[in-house]
Specification:
Blueprint (H helix, E strand, L loop, with lengths): L6 E10 L6 H14 L2 E11 L10 H13 L4 E4 L5 H11 L2 E4 H12 L3 H15 L3 H10 L6 H45 L4 E6 L5 H12 L21 E6 L5 E6 L9 H6 L1 H4 L7 E7 L5 H14 L7 E6 L10 E3 L2 E3 L5 H15 L4 E7 L4 H10 L1 E8 L2 E8 L1 H6 L4 E2 L1
Parallel strand pairs: 1-2, 1-3, 3-4, 5-7, 5-8, 8-9, 9-11
Antiparallel strand pairs: 6-7, 10-11, 12-14, 12-15, 13-14
Helix pairs in contact: 1-4, 3-6, 4-5, 5-7, 6-7
Length: 423
Amino acid sequence: MEELIREKAILVGVSIKGNDKDFDYQMKELENLATACEFEVVGIMEQSLSDIVSATYIGSGKVEELKEAAKNLEADVIIFNGELTPSQLANLANLTETSIYDRTYLILEIFAKRAKTKEAKLQVESARLSYLLPRLTGMGINMSRQGGGSGLHNRGSGEKKLELNRRKINKRISEIENELKKIEEIFVNQRKMREKSNLPLVALVGYTNAGKSTILNSMLSKYRQGEEDKKVFEKDMLFATLETKVRHITDENNKTFLLSDTVGFVSNLPHHLVKAFRSTLKEAQYADLILNVVDYSDDENETHRNITLETLDKIGVKNIPILTVYNKIDKTELKKCTVNGDKIYISAKSNDGILLLTKEIIKNVFSNYTECKLLIPFDRGDVVNRIISDETVISTDYTENGTLLSVSLSNEGVIRYKEFVTK
């Protein structure tokens, strides 16, 4: 097998004096993002400033130092920890004579590599084009130079090409938005069907690579053995999952709920992505319970937990119960799965962890449910079919007077089927 030749990258970060307590963490995260994008990090440069330099992000002396470092280290690209303005991008590329990326571009590239479904690919394309559009000016400099000379004629040619590119991008963004609206309509209908089923929805959210997909797959292995096709892609890498997947889970007591796996979060998730993935991210808005999955073995686990809470708040997810699931305890000194209030400590790969988590989910989502018996006449098979389809049926018996169902019902369900309630 041929060894992958990775491009060499230098990372650059600016710490704003007295206002950047998470700077070290953000630089570590930038390194992880660069690695996920298959760059070889050959150098890291940091600068402490009172404010960002408007023209070049970093100071002029640091730009010279960066140019020299890129030459000596044979760097292919320089990656900045922050979103660069179009002018900063153009100025830095000219001054360092090296390709310049920023953090937003890096995340967009990773999303592009991970996207598998039509919806995810369209969402990523929309985000990338929205990011690119205001940065065409910097690229326009290169276009004008490609005319083979100088003067107004060539500059005008470059500007015409730039305007043409703008029009093409705007047209494509509009086309994508229309396509995504059609896909969203399908998801809205699916969501309405789920709501009609009266099954509680539990949403797995959390920092990327915390183990959300592993939890979903472990539950499928436990409660839906033999259904390998229902499992979702999982891998130890950033943003392994970009699409929302929803699965039915029924425990040993016939309690059924829906479990959804969503795209992972990261600090300062680019607004282009938040906008493009709004329908996917907002899946959590319709949940009855949110599981904030955190990698307990990561030294920055509390930072990750808070990033998720901040992102949920940004996309308008409010007033929904949240359980914090500290996952991967098998990688720590804490070996026993435990519950402490609204915090659960598990290893998603262990049977004990899945059993404990399921128990807590059931306790929370069925807290307002009542177990009751419904006696339904044999000539009302339509009611029996609807209950079996939409409610949690614990047991079924056939008596001389009709079908006797032991059912767990919400308050609305009790009212809906009150004529059939029996002792």
